[in-house]
Please model this.
Amino acid sequence: MSLDNRKKQVLQAIVDDYVSTSEPVGSKSLIERHNFSVSSATLRNEMAELEKLGLIEKPHTSAGRIPSDKGYREYVNSLMRMDVLSDKDMEEIKTGISDSVNQITDLIRNAANTLSKTTGYVSLALTPKLTKSYLTQLKMMMIEPGKALVVVVLSAGVVKDKIVRIPNFLTNEQIYQISNEVEKSLCGKPLDEITLITVSSAVKDTPLPDSLLNQILYEAYVTIKQADKLDVYLEGEHKLLALPEFKEMNRAKDLLGTLADDGMVAGYVRELSSNNPDDKNNQYMIRIGQEITLEGLEECSFITTTYNVGDVLSGNIGIIGPKRMEYSKVISQVDFVRKTLNDEIKKLTE
Amino acid sequence: MSLDNRKKQVLQAIVDDYVSTSEPVGSKSLIERHNFSVSSATLRNEMAELEKLGLIEKPHTSAGRIPSDKGYREYVNSLMRMDVLSDKDMEEIKTGISDSVNQITDLIRNAANTLSKTTGYVSLALTPKLTKSYLTQLKMMMIEPGKALVVVVLSAGVVKDKIVRIPNFLTNEQIYQISNEVEKSLCGKPLDEITLITVSSAVKDTPLPDSLLNQILYEAYVTIKQADKLDVYLEGEHKLLALPEFKEMNRAKDLLGTLADDGMVAGYVRELSSNNPDDKNNQYMIRIGQEITLEGLEECSFITTTYNVGDVLSGNIGIIGPKRMEYSKVISQVDFVRKTLNDEIKKLTE
DNA sequence: AATTGGCACTCGAAGAGGTAGAGTGCTAAT
DNA sequence: ATTAGCACTCTACCTCTTCGAGTGCCAATT
Model:
């Protein structure tokens, strides 16, 4: 799409005005606010052409224009200029993320929290998918006769535990031995290569009958696999209710209904990021309006990005806001949150 | 408050009608729906007296009556008759709660989930406060030089872990030794009796300089204390948007804004349950309308109850719905969820 | 004394007009 | 190519009216 210079200016002005007022913008008010050196009639002609190109549209015959999804897309791709965050914003984000942190998940949660606070929109963060991380330790210990604790430590510094039932008569030593053998043979294996069969074959020369052993190993296996579950942090849903686009209750209901299923939203974002055309430079990803295939989010945009944990793992973080949003500002905020999060994770894990 | 028989019937009929229609109920429609053997004029007189008693009120002069908070209270305390859950409901709750469970927290989350689904309202569940539980195991193990994993096991079957930094030169054996000593001296102590001083005094005769030791012990202490944090599960907020009482966006916004701070809601419920006059028989607790001191919840009611983990620990579970709700039905649902949850927790932990 | 029929009155919900204002597209002039 | 001018179009908002469900009170009845 290549527009002549003035058309670009007009489109940009329309998007800017509409974003700040949420009212359709007409030729006259466009003249008033921006200093175009042409008359409103000329702008009307330009606007008619922009409409023909599908970049803007009228809610009804005698109303001003609003950007279409395509218009926003054009704006985002080639019109907007990047925002520079204020020192205050940066400070706020930094302190927000590093506030009372014990584990990586605290950082991620804090990042989501901060992002929702500074943007005023819904924030979304996914913990990294751990299939690529490898097992570094696996310990089983007796808690009381018949119960044992399995602790799994992964390369990313992630720890998962589970209390499992074991046959009553097993001794501490036996458990210890089994645990050692399993650990020895699985250590260093990526999570997605560990199957029930790999676990079982780890223990060949134990004096225990197979049936018992299998029970224990199954539990160990489940514990390992449990580590693979992603957590989702979704915050600030209620903030969307304040926006004029959701003043009709039904829209708001649909929107919040969809967002309530955080697993679904997470799945969508993860899919986006896995086959993502935008993200060549490991930058942000943007989806606008109808580009989003979730129900009730037709008036929204996603801005998401990727953060890293160690060398191989990555998670997603970003926001869901109205498509009528200050893209440049929000993008810089998301970007800065990502940088800060990356730094803090590095600090915490090394 | 002692009402004559007919007044009771009238109040009950008004509550029932208003709950099902959400429209103010007038004398005429009251006659139509229920078979009172008096005329509408008589009912009008009765209603005027009920209004004088503060049990019902008019939204405006020429409208029907709606129950006041006091009216609902009277209804709940002495008018309503208990509901019997259908087999289908019970089945649904049972399978909902015991679905794919690994830990106690899974049960609690499932219970919250199920409760929101069957009631159609917001559900709330708090994990038990663990201050009364005692430490059963504490293990520290080296992950790599400079990093150790601390695992704390509590009596309730709760496990918490944390990766901590340790001085680089510490050996596996040293860590093991410290961990053993701390464990030996803290084992069996309730969480709220463990302070930084108790932790420190546990290790007297180690050949390590105090400053190092203190660092490690501090981390152990933090890990233990971290176990004391409550988790909150709050689900189904968006369902309230469908109710007529929240069709005005501002109310809905206030409501969801308050509910977004789940820590605050949790604190409120916990306080309720700790100095709770209702709960003599360890039954449910009900708060109606203005009795609730949280902003934006004036049109809501809480119905909460207590579930048990082991002998000493207890958590809370319940719902937040409109005060115009089918109390009898919802109470039985909450009660059945509590019973089922108790059973399942017992099954899981013994 | 309690109940009832009747009646005047009240108030909100809902629909019907009417107007103002911000927009548009088109045409003819520059 | 641009612009001034004009007729036209729609919505948002206001007012007015009507309708109906409801009330309170009074006088008659049981």
